[in-house]
Every structure is written in structure tokens, then in C-alpha cells.
Please model this.
Amino acid sequence: MKVVDFLKHKREFLSKHPFELKDWMSPTIRDYWIEFLNKANNSQLISWVKEHQMQATVNNKEVIKEPKPIELHPEAAALLEEFTTQIGEEIHVGDWLTVDQNRINNFADVTDDHQWIHTDPERAETESPFKTTIAHGFLTLSLLSRLTDSVDPEKPQYPTAKMTVNYGLNQVRFPYPVKSGNRVRARSRLLKVTPIKRGLEIEKEISVEIENCRRPGCVAISVVRLYF
Model:
């Protein structure tokens, strides 16, 4: 008898004879027993078993359902082979970019974040521990595409891919603020490459280096999907 059929039979039996066992129970156990019967009568237990059943019975033999292998486009397969040898390595160092006050002010206008630590140089000089204005953390984050050369139409980062999608970020930290006038650049380290339907998923650790500063302005795990 299958587990599901057995539980269904027990559920029907317990529903018809709920007091035979309950009368022998202590009050505490009886409460748990009533709760169990309610769940059984509502088919919650049967549904749970069905949802978590990992195997299918075929001709009285247990057969594990294996996922279908992903068939990669030849160019995706070639890129996967290339990237597999680079896991853990630094794969890109960008050019320096100056984060000036004008860029900070423009970002403040776009986001409506005009805190004085970003937009008031005079006040920041006297009241801020950094003695100058600093870039918004999200401004530094928003520059990742530019800093990693991902948006240059003349030099596509993945020329064999038909489309590149910014899938998201797994983790973001801002260890040190980027001061107005600082130059920054990105350093990218390849963490993982995974085949997906119609392409590849790439995870990279991107660190935004601040010129002449020991600590980075941003460290993020970027997830990009390539479609072929």
C-alpha cells in the first residue's frame, strides 16, 4: 500500500472513530491529538505528503525523476569552458573615474536625497568627520555598469551573447565613503558560472577601489545573465 493511500485510510478511520483513543489520553496529549485530526480531516496531511513526494512509482519500481540537462548554444558552451578556468581569478580592472560634486548633486536631484553630507560642501567642511561632502552609497553602486565597462556599445563585454541582463545583486556593502573629487575604479573577480535555459548566469565580486585609500567604497556580488 502506498504511503498516501495508507494515510488516507487512517484519516477516514480516525474520522469515524475519534474517541476510542482520545479517552485514554491525558488532557495535554488530547489537545495535540484533536489538532492532528483537524489537519487530517482538512486533507492538509495528505497534501503535504503529495507535495514532498520526490519519487514516482512505475511498475512497482522506484524511479528518481532527473531534471532534463540544459542544452547550451555552441557559443555559450565555449564561453562556459573559458570561464570555468577563470573561477576565483580577477578578470577585469576598469579605468579611473572622478566622482565630482556635480555628479553627486545630479544624483541628489534624481533621487531627492539632498542630505547636507552630500550636497553642502561648506557645512560638511566644518561638521562632517570627512571634512568634505561624500557620494551617496547608491551613487557608487549605480556606477558599477560604467566602471565595469558593461555599457560601452563599442566594446561589448560579451560579444557572442545576443543579450546581457543585470539579474541583480546578492550582497552589497559600503566599507568606506567616496569623497567628492575622489577617483574610483572597479576590480571584478569571477565567482561562479552556471548554465541556464538559453544561456549562462555569471556571479562576480566587484570591488570599487578608491584611489590612495586602503578600503573600498563598495563591494557587491553582481549576477548577470547572458542569453544566446
In short: The beta strands are 55-58, 61-64, 90-93, 97-98, 163-173, 183-196, 199-210, 218-227. The chain has ten helices and eight strands. The radius of gyration is 29 Å.
